Amino acid sequence: MLIIVFFNALSRYIVHLEFAFTMEIVTSLFPWLTFFGAAVAVKRKGHLGFSLLTDLFPQKWKILADIFALFLMTLLFAIILYFGTEMVMFERETHQVTPALSMPSWIVELSIPLGSLAIIMRTAQLAYIEFLRKE
Predict the structure, then answer these.
(1) How far is residue 62's CA from residue 81's CA, in Å, rounded to a whole number?
(2) Residues near 12 by beta carbon (within 8 Å), at least 6 away in sequence
(3) Domain hosting residue 81, numbered range
(4) Are 112 and 77 in contact (CB under 8 A)?
(5) How does the average pLDDT of the chain come out, rounded?
(6) What total of structural domains would you count in the chain?
(7) CA gap 127, 64 in Å, rounded
């Protein structure tokens, strides 16, 4: 994405020629990168957390708070998975296309349900590793 934007900026300022499709490619790749990057962050326990209150809890309550947070995260991405799938199906049925490349819009939007599914799977994996395997 960086290379595409860099060369588009160079062509705009050096040759005075802008390629509109490059920005569409970048904005199409962005949700894919975001969702699958978030799934990798879940696996590596790299998400930011606010632990000011939970640091004051006894160990047993910390574990319960972590389990509750994983449950809420799974619930959130299950909702996003459901509505993302609805959106992709609607875009397929209505044959929507992107403006510059005339590519089917559902291909770009497919990142939402697939990325949500990847995050749910990584959350379940993290829950298993952190809590179920220890007992």
Answers:
(1) 28
(2) 18
(3) 2-132
(4) no
(5) 89
(6) 1
(7) 12
